[in-house]
Specification:
single chain, 9% strand, two-stranded antiparallel sheet, Muramoyl-pentapeptide Carboxypeptidase, domain 2, globular, alpha+beta
Length: 217
């Protein structure tokens, strides 16, 4: 795997093969969410199966998803949006390490292949954010909005989409997959007014489910 320490130029990007390019975009991610840094969790899960964190997260995704992410992320870079992979494959043990927020159960995450639980190499989701990062949650969120809007506009050209829209903004998966077909129509109706406040979605879920809402992330 490529150990990336800096951004590559647009002219250099095509020199990388698929998995090296995706590894770069994973390694450049700050791996921070509203709970704080979480990248160490990938390292713990990967060590248990004798892999590096990058190999675990990137190569754990289904080949067709990696193919599509490679093409889309390169196109986004050429359009001025350097996009990082904040999360890739998550097996059951790694999924169980998520202790805050709305989330899927350990054996029911599309990051790990969902109910079929096919394991490493078959993850069906990735979390995409701006490589610009930010010092606060608000900054990271605002910097990533152009990334998510671009995906909403152009993602289907690469057969990728955000099934939950603003309920789980970074979450991206195959647009011809079961998750997208099942979840996107509901999300599209919920957010037809164009608003994108993540907090609104979370509060709606908590109210509906008594404060214990969860989704398949």
């Amino acid at each position: 795997m490529l150990a990336a320490a800096m951004f590559l130029t647009q002219s250099e990007a095509p020199m990388l093969d698929r998995d090296d390019f995706l590894a770069q975009q994973y390694e450049l991610s700050g791996k921070v969410d509203f709970t704080g840094p979480f990248g160490w969790k990938d390292g713990v899960a990967a060590a248990k199966v004798g892999m590096s964190a990058t190999q675990y997260a990137v190569e754990g995704m289904e080949k067709v998803l990696r193919d599509r992410l490679y093409l889309m992320l390169r196109e986004m870079r050429l359009n001025g949006l350097d996009t990082c992979i904040n999360a890739g494959y998550r097996g059951p043990e790694r999924q169980a390490m998520i202790t805050a927020g709305v989330r899927a159960s350990a054996n029911n995450s599309f990051h790990g292949g969902a109910k079929n639980r096919r394991g490493h190499g078959h993850g069906l989701a990735a979390d995409l954010v701006s490589c610009l990062g930010g010092d606060t949650n608000d900054q990271r969120f605002d910097n990533s909005k152009p990334v998510w809007r671009w995906i909403d506009t152009h993602g289907l050209e690469f057969k990728l989409g955000r099934p939950y829209l603003h309920c789980d903004p970074p979450h991206v998966g195959p647009s011809d997959g079961g998750e997208y077909r099942a979840k996107y129509p509901t999300a599209a109706v919920r957010f037809k007014d164009g608003k994108d406040e993540y907090s609104r979605c979370v509060s709606q879920k908590k109210k509906k489910r008594g404060g214990k809402g969860k989704k398949r992330r």
